[in-house]
Amino acid sequence: MSTAAATHDDHHDHHHAPTGLKRWLFSTNHKDIGTLYLWFSFAMFLSGGFLAMVIRAELLEPGMQFVDPEFFNQMTTVHGLVMVFGAVMPATVGLANWMIPLMIGAPDMALPRMNNWSFWILPFAFTILIGSVVMSAFGAGNPSAPNFGWTFYAPLSTKYGPASTDLFILSVHMMGISSIMGAINVVVTVFNMRAPGMTLMKMPLFVWTWLITAFLLIAVIPVLAGAVTMMLTDRHFGTSFFDAAGGGDPVLFQHVFWFFGHPEVYIMILPSFGIVSAIIPAFARKPLFGYASMVYATASIALLSFVVWAHHMFTVGMPLAGTLFFMYMTMLISVPTGVKVFNWVATMWRGSMTFELPMKWAIAFVVLFTCGGLSGLMLAITPVDFQYHDTYFVVAHFHYVLVTGAIFSIFAAAYYWLPKWSGIMPNKTLGELHFWNSLISANLLFFPMHFVGLAGMPRRYADYALQFADYNFWISIGGFWFGLSQLLFLAVTVLCAMKKGEKAPAKPWEGAEGLEWEVPSPAPFHTYDTPPVVK
Amino acid sequence: MQSTLFHRAAAGLTSLMISGMTFASDWTERSDLDLRPGVTQVSQEVQNLHTTVLWIVTVIGLLVCGLILFSMIRHRRSKNPNPSTFHENVFFEVLWTVIPFVILIAMAVPATRVLVQLDDTAESELTVKVTGYRWKWSYEYLTYEDDNDIGVSFFSNLATPPEQYNNPVLSGGLFPYGTAKDLVGKDAPEKDHNYNLEVDNKLIIPSGQKVRFLVTSDDVIHSFWVPDFGGKKDAIPGFVNETWALVPEGKEGTYYGQCAELCGKNHAFMPIAVEVVTQDEFKTWITEEKEKAASGPDLTPFAGIDQAMEEGKQVYDSACALCHGANGEGGIGLAFAGTEFATKKEHLNEHIDVLVNGRAAMPNFKAQLTPRQIAAVITYERNAFGNDTGDLIQPADVNDHE
User: Fold this and answer.
1) Cβ distance of B53 and A381 shorter than 8 Å
2) Nearest by CB: A383 against B49, B81, B178
3) Is B79 inside a domain boundary?
4) Where residue B382 sits, what CATH number does that domain have?
5) Is B119's CB within 8 Å of A65's CB?
6) Half-sphere exposure of A490 (CA within 13 A, CB side)
7) Angle A92-A98-A99 (CA atoms, 0-180°, nearest 5)?
8) In this structure, are B272 and B254 located in the same domain?
């Protein structure tokens, strides 16, 4: 891969760049919008984390000490929603915005104005959602914020939902519109704006995984929109989709929700696979093992994700044949996922590895994601799932795949590409502290959850029986430690944003491959106005 | 159990080190690291399956981590400055697709067998209908052996007194509902051993006989779960799910469980307690209960207000406190302490009516409490929390109320 265009772009840098507030409000530049997405998702990560701190404070000891059980339920609900829709998803969209045009040699995203809109919907959507929590904590009469879990099962969220459920529905619709627009933008960009010679099977794996993620988003976000719309009409317009008394079915809600919800899980993790597939070869100084099988494995995971949804609801009393089908399909997912893990190990094998910060996070990702994947396989075994279901074992599982999985890979991506974004190398001392503190505290936080779950502690419990007390104490300590550790990352990013630190060269990582390293650091405002030629 | 954080930290660390793979005999003992084997044959099969799968994934996990660790040590730049360039190998790629597939089949076979067994609710000797309510359970005995008309049913509430779980250290914004302001900073009473698990009326079942549970709900989705019986089943309004348990003879005792599906504010406060007794004891008990149910409610008047207050406090703590506050300060339900409703004579009839017939979100308690209990609790609400109205309501007043 080579380009003659990179240096030619420099003189564009100054005339178009607007300044001040207008630069951000009216931006149609993929880099600025990517930056907005990334800062927004980090702000949401810290807010969602704060809610988790409230949860862990309450669970430090048995008994109700800090909040009311009702407020506790609002915390678990909004923590989940903010982390899923506010932290992980926008972070990967931010990475896509920044990196996809750079990686495929495109000047910008295909639909730049829509790009602006899809970002600027989000702050309003989350203001509505988090506003309901603020009102619940401080408002007159303490109107309840959404309190039915991030899965908002009917009829708890319909007939029994608080008034703020309608704010929640509006907010989810807005997030959905934003996600669909972002996804359409990625698909159109990848199909139409690749540089000459950049065939599909030459694309970096991050672009591939995001392309597949975008198709998943377009397929399932409308289903989520359907679910919340049915809730709305059940609540206010006399329908009974989810009310057995009117001929509906509460279980229908779960089928619709999880038809969205399971692909959603892969929406959050597939971009991570792409990130790690970029970083491991760079620091092993060896090409990615099994590129083609990685692409096919990602596609199979995406396809299988449409036929496994009911494994989230084995206990609702499905017929035996249905239960068996969903058990077998779910177990099958571990085959393509295993292929990916083995490919990463084979990429490291007989490489020449160094362990800079991005590589540390990427290896932690592979190990801990595997741990979460294996507990996922255990959860697939239906008869045993009857015991695991809705316990802390499930909480441990999905935090391993989402925190030490998705979020660790996002940190890996940030440390890997921050030099390109800011032109500054991330501070090594702070970065090392951030990594080691996060690694140890995340395991102290999430590993004992397996034990309390197996011992029988149900999830979403504001208070628990005394036999669970010791582990919960340690889980809470791990939680506070992990939460505080993230402030180190805030310091790293603020230093980069303030341009304090060592200047980064165009290609700061010796073994890194790809078009993004052929433009200067920081990447100029406009890149690849003339497409590079990929050989 | 009231200890400082330091004590808890020390105890926790010790338990992490010594708990190992031993099983506590009772669920309420210090928790295990692993899934409990339970008491039924099915729960033990589930536990065996769990152990098998856990070993398989542990070996796979250690293998993957071992390879990564080996590679990190041997294939770092200082040891291996010239990287290889291989990037595919058909043999290995086929190998690590096929081997996991074979392992999956090996796991699917026993899983299918246990699942089929769990699904078989036929030929039960006792059928109990379990209904989830916010936030309590009701048990209705439908059939036992040849008897298809038992007519025994009762509600089961949390028996842990609110003083034990309400230990607020802050008041105000973060404690928005059912404010327990006067409890802030007070020392809470010692927590019982079965804290948060004990109930007022246990579900009683016989050992050595297959018991079928018909699980449903009156409001939102709950989930009926006794870990020692090997699984849970959701209680869904408008639908009836089936599950079963057969506790072998010689395993009589009390088994605890909890609601496992988020059902609102007091999700964590609706435990399940099942007392397994011998068949002889069960027959004696069910016969007595049938007679009691047939003879109509106990309408003996209270000897005095103190007797009514004493019985009323027990009813209030288990049936009312979750919504109306431990000290009548209100919450989801309205307040009693010093309110017109609970102190003015003209509201007395209304007060009885709300309990007997329900009103809006307040369910009717005619099915859940006896007239004697309703009379006692109204007396309590009108005389406790500083109300001191002197009103004494008799069981007959409630029973006569339409």
Assistant:
1) yes
2) B49
3) yes
4) 1.10.760.10
5) no
6) 13
7) 85
8) yes
